[in-house]
Model the fold of this input.
Amino acid sequence: MSVFRRVTLKLSGEALAGEGGFGIDQAALGRIARQIHNVHDTGLEIAVVVGGGNIFRGATAAEGGMERSTADYAGMLATIINALALQDAIERTGLEVRTMSAMHVEQVAEPYIWRRALRHLETGRVVIFAAGTGNPYMSTDTAAALRAVETDADVLLMAKNNVDGVYDADPSKVPDAHRFDHLTYLEALSRRLEVMDSTALSLCMENHLPIIVFAAHGPSSIERAARGEPIGTWVSDTPRTVAEMAPKAVGG
Done:
């Protein structure tokens, strides 16, 4: 039984690429879809925000000379492709899914409407949020924080592709880098730790939304995080217990 009632899962585009690092790997997609199905089977309401870095990364294209707004809109289109692929994979597990986009692409996705999103979640559908916030200069981390706050999620699950939590240095470059079990928002901001971008982290802090940062491809890692098990790094107002970080727990 999870300590949470409703969760928002942030998936990077790279998590869908598998070991190839680019495009969509069907095996990786299937593993993620099955975990989302298992989370749903516990009675949780679950929404997913997907990135697009496995197809196109706006910030990188802008650094290469592409006009920033154009690059960011292209990145939003990449997230829609990922959302449709994930929708199909989850539907093949037997769940109802709705993709909602911040860009208008009515042929393939519903427009994002706050009340409709809540209704989908309340009726047991998995909701996938695509196209970020619909605005350039905003990351999908910010979109994840915003959608989690808007839909009254109990926790934001940040599934990372190549790291299993928040470290005081890059563990791929510093072998003895320390992984934190718990952090406060202010600690993460002041130390410039790579939890998420500062806009997204500030939004979570202002709305007291706990964050769990963990490895996307660990064994049953999405299920474990959604159940509130000790995994990765927890970020909140103060380092607290699982129960305290879930004030709207099922049965509470």
